[in-house]
Sequence to fold (464 residues):
Amino acid sequence: MRFGDLAGRRLALWGWGHEGHAVYHALRTRLPQQPLTLLCSDAEAAEAAALGDAALQVETEATGEALSAFDVVIKSPGISPNKPEAIQAAQHGTRFLGGTALWFAEHAQDGTMARTFCVTGTKGKSTTTALLAHLLRSAGLRTALAGNIGVPLLELLGAQADAWAIELSSYQTRDVAASGAHPHIAIVTNLHPEHLDWHGSEARYYADKLALVTEAKPRFAVLNAADPLLAQLRLPDSEIRWYGNAQGWHLREDALFRGDRLVMDTGALPLPGQHNRSNLCAVLTALEAFGLDAVALAPHALDFRPLPHRLQPLGERDGILYVNDSISTTPMATLAALELYAQRPVAVLVGGHDRGLPWDEFAEAMRVRAPKAIVTMGQNGPRIHSLLAPIASASGFVLQAANDLADAVATARAALPAGGVILLSPGAPSFGPYRNYVERGRHFARLAGFDPDAIAGIAGMGIA
Fold:
C-alpha cells in the first residue's frame, strides 16, 4: 500500500514516538489535507495538539472498538499486532501497517528494490548495518544508513542514495514482505529467542524474523552458515550466499579468510570479540554479492567507529575497567560478552525487564566458567538469582542481588580487586526504570564517573 492508496480512507496513526513522528510528517507531505486520528498516551496528546493541525484528531483510548473504526492503522513498531485490541480490530477488517511498509511500497519499482541492503538478526544487526554503510562509502558510494538503527526510513522519504543500508528489527521484517517489495540483498546474522512478549512464541519470533527472506524474497540472501537454524533454510526464490563456513568468508581465530585465501588479521579491528568480527564476514559477503571487490574493501574496516552501548569500554576508575554492553538483551549476548573478558576478574550486572526468556543455558555455562561475581537486578533479577543460587558456591562465584543499577554498580565495586572489570551486560531489556537501552547505558556511564554525552552517537547516520 502506497501513500496514494491511503487517500480518502479512515486513517489512524497509533504511537507517537520517533517512528510515529516520521510517519506523521510523511503523511502531511504527501496527503496534507487527509483527516487523521492519532492514538497516543495522555502525555503525548498535548504535544500533538500543539501542532495546530485542523485535520488531526487526537485520542488516548486505543481499544479494539476504537481501532475497528478505521480502514487503515499505521502503528509504531513497538506495538504488537498480537495485542487483543489489534486482533479484534483486524477481525473487523482494519488493516495494520508500519512506516517501513509504506517506505518500501513507495520506492519499489515493479517489486524490486535495487541497491537496497536489509539487515536483521537477533544480535549484531546494528553493527553489521553500520559497518556495511562504512564500507559502501569507502567504495565511493553515497549511502543511506537508516531504519531501526535510529533514523526512520520515512525521514528520508524522497531522498536519493547510491545504496541503502537498512537495519530491521523483528517488529519490521514483515513490513517489507507486506509492502510487496523485494530487497536486492538481505542479511540475517543469527537467531536466538527474543521479544517473545511481542511475538507471542519462539516459533512466531523466528517466522516473523525470517519473513525478510522467506516472504520478501530478496535477490540475494546472505546467511550465517554457523547458525543451526539458518543453516536449515532453503529459499527457492533467492540466491543464498553463505558466510561462516570454509567455502565463504570466515574467521580462523583472528585471521579473516575468503575460502582458503588469507585476507587479513582482524586483531586490530575496533570490533571486540570474535562474534562481533563475524559481522564483517556478513558484510563482505553482501558486498561481494553486490559486485564490489570485498577483498580490497576489507582493510577499510580498520577505520570503522564502533557503536555505543555494545561492549563499549568506558575507561578505568580506581583500577577498575567499566564496560557498557547495555544493548545486551538476551542471556546469549551476556555469555558472549563474558567470553571477551574471560582472562580478567569480572563482575557482571544482569537482569532487567522480564520477557520470559530462559536463563538455564546461562546457568549451565556458569558451572564451567563463571566470572568472579554476578549481580542480579531488575524485574527478572530474582528469577535469575534463584536459578544461580544452587550453583554459586560450587562454581566459585559471588552471587548478590541489587535493588537497582546504582546498587548493582556499588555492589560490583566492592566485589572486585584492582584490575577487574565491571561489565553491564544485562541480558534483558531496559523497560521499567529506563525508556531504552541507551538511557540505561548513559546512567551506567554516570554511575561509573564518565560523561554520558561522550559515549553517545552513531557515526554516519542518514545519507553520506
Q: What stands out?
A: The mean pLDDT is 95. The longest strand covers residues 112-120. Residues 341 and 421 are 8 Å apart (CA to CA).
